[in-house]
Amino acid sequence: MKPDRRHWLMVSPAQALLVLVLFVPALYVFWLSLTRSTYGKSPEWAGLANYATVLGDPYFWRALWNTAIVVNTIVFMEFALALGVAVLFAGWIPWRKWMIAMVLAPYAITEVVSVVIWKFMMDPYGGPITNALATLGLPPLDWSVEPSHGLALVIVLSVWHHLPFTFILLYTALLGIPRDLYEAAQVDGASAWKQFIRITIPLLVPAMLVALVFRYIFAFRIFSEVWLLTGGGPARTTEVLAVYLYRHAFRYADFGAAAATGWLMLLASLLMGAWYIHLMYKKMFRHDAS
Fold first, then answer.
1. Can you give the CATH number for the domain in which 82 is found?
2. Residues near 121 by beta carbon (within 8 Å), at least 6 away in sequence
3. If you write DSSP's letter for every residue of 198-250 in order, what string do you get?
4. In 3D, which of 221, 207, 208, 216 has the Cα closest to residue 271?
């Protein structure tokens, strides 16, 4: 059924709301990125000067590199864990409802509280996890001084907090796979591994791509974990793009450079997600197109 004027009128309020909430502010931020703007002064036209300043800043490239490392590690580590837990839960597991509630529990905690909890547990001078590592003869994770340790803790914290989102997408998709396919495969003598490769993975691809796209978008904006845990330090070595933007906007009051950073983040996230969106479109709509 092709949409006509009546259908467009019915969805027009939602479309107008999206334009007002998303498109208009985005255009304002883009205009702001082309100006010199700060507290108490009217914006002055600057053209592409803000973009040149940001792209010429070594701290921006370090933040971009940190963001790329953190985001890719978070997304794929979280995806692998969520897929494993979803497959486990789709099979037989005791106390399934209680176990699912335990897996989903971190998503009910705010990011601020999550950071406070992990800072306490990973305190280098007496945190429970630090003491447990010492008991096993392992060195502590000195995240307050060592940049690599700080980024590692940010990754662990983010994976723990957002794992339920990816898990619930994959788990519900797994439950939607017909059991008849597995029964037929068992009759044909297929092992559990072959059933996973030949049945589960192909039928999960659309849900996998949706989960990856959403997690890339969300993870690329990571801010609270880094800001509350390390503040971008020491010496801005753990800074990510969202922290870089915040610092320019609210520490240096350079709204033009902050807006330019925001648009560069948008372009970078679109480039990172474009391939997955392309694959998702082909996988989900290629039969309709043919």
1. 1.10.3720.10
2. 127, 128, 129, 130
3. IIIHHHHHHHHHHHHHHHHHHHHT--HHHHHHTTT-STTTT--HHHHHHIIII
4. 216
**C-beta neighbour count of 122 within 10 angstroms:** 22
Q: Tokens at residue 209, please?
A: 């791509």
The answer to whether the bond into 234 is cis (omega within 30° of 0) is yes
Compute the average pLDDT of residues 54-64: 92
pLDDT at 286 over 60: no
pLDDT beyond 60 at 290: no
In a domain, 101, yes or no: yes
Task: Evaluate whether residue 17 is within a structural domain.
Answer: no
Give the residue from 232, 225, 235, 217 showing the smallest Cα distance to 272.
217
Closest CA to 83 of 152, 173, 157, 193: 173
Pick the closest to residue 249 from 233, 265, 238, 237 (CA basis): 265
Q: Total structural domains in the chain?
A: 1
Which token pair is 28?
Answer: 């304002």
| Interatomic CA distance for residues 199 and 244, integer angstroms | 44
Q: Is residue 175 part of a domain?
A: yes
Three-state secondary-structure class, residue 45: strand
User: In a 3-state reduction of DSSP, which class is residue 136?
Assistant: coil
pLDDT digits (tens, 9 = 90+) for 31-58: 988 999 888 888 888 889 999 999 999 9
CA triple 198-202-206, angle to 5 deg: 165
* Position 157 in a domain: yes
> For residue 100, what are the domain limits?
56-289
Neighbours of 38 (CB within 10 A): 13
Dihedral-angle region of residue 253 (phi above 0 means left; psi in -120 to 50 means alpha; beta otherwise): left
